[in-house]
Amino acid sequence: TLAEIGKRLGFESAFGFRNARDVFVEYAALSGINRDSPLQLDISGLATLNDEHYETMAPLQWPVRADGPNDDSQRLFGDGQFSTPDRRARFIAVTPEWPQESPQSADNAETPFFLNTGRVRDHWHTMTRTAESERLNRHRAEPYVEIHPDDARADRVVNGDIVELKNRHGSVLLRARIEEGQRRGSLFVPMHWSDQFAAKARIDALVTAHVDPHSGQPELKHARVSLQRVHSEWQGLLLSTERLPLPRDSYWAGVPVAGGWAYWLAGAAPIQDAEQQLRALVPGEESLQFIDAETHDRRHAWIEDDNTLRAVLILKLSTKESAEKAGSETADPKKDSSELPEAWWLASRLGQNLSAIDRRVLLTGHPPGEQADQGAMICSCFQVSESRICATIAAGAGTAEQLGEKLRCGTNCGSCVPELNRLIRAAKTVAVPEEIIRVG
């Protein structure tokens, strides 16, 4: 894209790149200017790669100098020569300071939790590339906050609730995840979600602008926030072949899927009002609809004349709100407050011609036949779901190695091994139920 802009600005000869290899070899040649400087980045030895060698190039360690010698096994700075004028290392003595929003802060009562932000396994920066992969999204599709069970119980929060984190800098809306491994009094929130993929999940908006005087790094690992459960009258699932202009006054999170977009929703307005507002976002009249007079669930589908699925909307009264209306309260914070079907089968039907049986079971949200909800896709490499892993643990697999032997999970990149171990530990204390749903 940038090369095309350069050409249109009149610099066609300078931007005459045929492909990514042409850009790379020009950059590689340019890095040779560091040959006689203390700087280490020099990959000028790769400036002669042809198309075939570029496409098959394996990861390597730089520098790779055009005039050698190059030893890919040599550790950088292993010779004791550093990137300073005299090639000697520098140690900088600093005086540690409390974070600006430290335990000594005056407003602890209003913001009792410490907020830690960071990365998750399958997303990179602000998801502009990783969110395009449905395989990666199936592990964690929504922005969330991890809360210790004791903190969740104290604030009457259960798994799947929508919660608001807030301080003097701003606020966010996130899905609650109750985790034994989270430290009491602390919360963890991934930093990846932006306004492109959620209504209000930019967690760094809650981080103070105070920066380290030496590195310029903000206090991304330490902020003080309050946590409050947000009343959600309903929760919903919306899938559409087109991206929809959802309002930002209530919770939603969305990711691209093969046939369009999938959105997870929640709101405090009466479910009938939400139904009317969301139906108005999808052009045309729906072809199928079902309203349950007892549970107040609402389900709609938009199907073209050629039997192609254009959109699906499923709204359910929140479990916790149903319990409160019945005069009871959910005691277990790990119990999920959402009973929505998984999005991925419906996503696979978007833009597709529906079979007669697909059409018959469409509003259930489940594929035909006897199906167990898969849960999160724990192993992205081999597409091994949480339900398969839990079932294999229940059948006797007691280590990550044994799971790998039976399911292959954890045997490629290995990044899912910590989560495999967490599921094994959890299985030792509580049986993991598997919900089997018969449809069709």
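Next protein, fold it too.
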Amino acid sequence: DGDGHGGYNKAGFIGGGFVNYAFRPNQKLEMQILYMQKGAKVSPDTQKGDYTDYSLNANYIEIPVLYLYDWKKFTFKIGLMPDIYIGRTEESNGTDLTENPAYDMRPVSLSAYAGISYNITEHIAISGIFTYSLLSIRKNTLPDNVYFLFEHGAYSNAISFGLNYTF
């Protein structure tokens, strides 16, 4: 949010590992470490007179700290996730914005995390996750930025789907 483009139209890779501790029979604390690709993609739609061509490919190390609640074959997850920015490529209408200081990313941000997993077997699950940054991901404000919680800025939100294996 805050980039002037809407929708979930950029696929990216997510992978990593986790450890958890069961402090009650159906409740756990979990910490993950993930590599996550985030971004945005807008292609021109000349039939509608829109010639915008924009691409952002951002790479992060994510460290979710989560509370898990097991119910039947489902696991509900909620928590906070520090986002550590490790690099990006960004281009708008043929202009490389990657080295432009006005578009610099914050080195660390913080996101809210909510997810649900369906346990197919004792070791295999499928999951859906929604994350939304609580702090702006950019150092500077830009014209299309929005105001959310604490500040005016650009915010990352992502929907992820995964296949999980527990040892």
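About the second fold: The mean pLDDT is 88.
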